[in-house]
Amino acid sequence: MKTKTREKTMYSIWFVIPSLVIFAIFFLWPIISSLYYSLTVWNFDTATFCGLDNFKMFFSENSLSSSVLHTLIYAFSTSALKVVLAFFIAIFLCSKIKTKDFIRSSVFFPNLVSAMAVGLTFSYLMHPTRGFFNVILNSLGLASIDFLGDPRFALASVILTDVWKGLSISVVIYIAGIQSIDKTYYEAAQIDGASGWQQLVNVTLPLVAPAQNSIIILSLIGGLRSFDLIWAMTGGGPGFATDVMASVIYKEYAYGFYGLSTAGNVIMLILISIIAFRLQHFLNKREEAIQ
Amino acid sequence: MKKKKALYILGDIIGLIVTVFVFIIPFYFMLANSFKTEKDANLLNMEWPSIIHLENYIEVFSKANYQLVTAFKNSLILTFFTVLGLIITGAMAGYVIQRRRDKTMGAIQWLIMLGLMIPASILPTINLLQNLHIYKTMFGMVMIEIALQTPFTIMLFRGYMASIPKELEEAARIDGCSNWQIFWYIINPLLKPIRATVIILTAVNTFNDFTNPLYFLPGAENTTVQLTLYNYKGQFKSSYNLLFADIILITVPMLIIFLIFNKKIVDGMVSGSVKG
Question: Is domain B61-275 in CATH 1.10.468.10, yes or no?
Answer without folding.
Answer: no
